[in-house]
Amino acid sequence: MSDIAQHIAVSQRVEIDDLDWDLCRRVGLTEREVESLAFFADVESQTVYYFLEVAKLQVARDPELLTFLTMWNYEEYFHSHAITRLLTECGVPVQSATERSTQVRAGARFKAAFEDFMQTMMAKLMPKRFVSLWMFWGAIQECLTTQAYEEIIRSTKNPVLEEMFKRIAKQERRHFAYYFNQARERLENNPRNQKFCRFIVNKFYAPVGSGVKSESDSVQLIARLFPGDKIIEVMTYIEKRMAQLPGMEGLDACSKWAHKIQPMLPEEMRAPSAQSERAAA
Fold first, then answer.
1. Is residue 16 part of a domain?
2. What is the CATH number for 36?
3. Distance between CA atoms of 204 and 126, rounded to whole angstroms?
4. Using an 8 Å Cβ cutoff, are 153 and 162 in contact?
5. Where are the alpha helices (DSSP H) in the chain?
6. Within a domain: residue 81?
7. What digits encode the pLDDT tens for the residues 253-280?
8. Domain that holds residue 155
9. pLDDT tens digits for range 19-28
């Protein structure tokens, strides 16, 4: 069975109708969880716009790529829908997934338009290299997304939230696997693609969500999710996974970003190891 056929065989909206919503309401959510879930819902709701932007590119007209993007978009939208449902059940006033996606996109209009323009230009000028970057970028972002869901799974006291996020994380791991394997195929024995991807990631890396939120908002939310040295650990883990791809040994764009944002954080949220490194320097 081909890679895409395996995805078709298991693709579905995340199941939430069987969850114990009475228990979910009784246990409730912490303030940190409410902030994190709202951020997750906003980011997941934006995939439909990314799908529309990418689908118009000639390089995306490959039947396998369009098939995956269609499944990816469908599953990600229902991640937002499920998170919105859980917030609502716990008494958190929140817009529907569709309303949230429209409002978030309106706030990110300039950044979204600029990113769309840049990827359109790259896709026209260097189509094969762009697809390599597209897959590499997708893998690095899906890896972080999975880590974020798994952090909530480990820390929450709400068993319904834990179960829902286990189901979502399972789909996110599958998304990561597709992007990662596609990136490997396009980077293998291709030094130019390798150098191009490294250059772009080293120059422009920022975690998923940075394109639809202000830099300050996204930094604060990610730092709350991964407080202190945890953010350094997570970013280093992502780099180790991506270093398994051809030409990516020693990649450090993610940990450099984690160190760069430290001055933007309140003192109590900063990574002690990063502060120690600065003091030693």
1. no
2. 1.20.1260
3. 18
4. yes
5. 3-10, 21-27, 31-45, 47-55, 63-89, 97-107, 109-125, 127-155, 159-187, 191-204, 215-225, 230-242, 253-260, 272-280
6. yes
7. 999 999 999 998 888 888 987 656 555 4
8. 23-280
9. 999 999 999 9
